[in-house]
Design brief:
With 58 residues, the chain is an all-alpha fold. The protein is built from two helices and no strands. α1 (2-27) packs antiparallel against α2 (32-57).
């Protein structure tokens, strides 16, 4: 079960970072919202990676 939760969190984190990058490219600059979205997506992705690795080893 942790494997699937981790995979879902990785997808959400990856999507968040991707949306942040596309928003910054379209505006030409990155604001505070994009920075928060980037760091949050990065953290969510790695929490998902941790949970996924714990679920796969069980």
């Amino acid at each position: 079960m942790l494997f699937y939760i981790g995979t879902g969190l990785q997808l959400v984190g990856f999507t968040s970072v991707g949306l942040c990058l596309f928003a910054g490219l379209s505006m030409g600059d990155y604001g505070k919202l994009e920075l928060i979205q980037f760091v949050g997506g990065f953290c969510i992705f790695y929490v998902g990676h941790f949970l996924k690795s714990k679920g796969a080893s069980s």
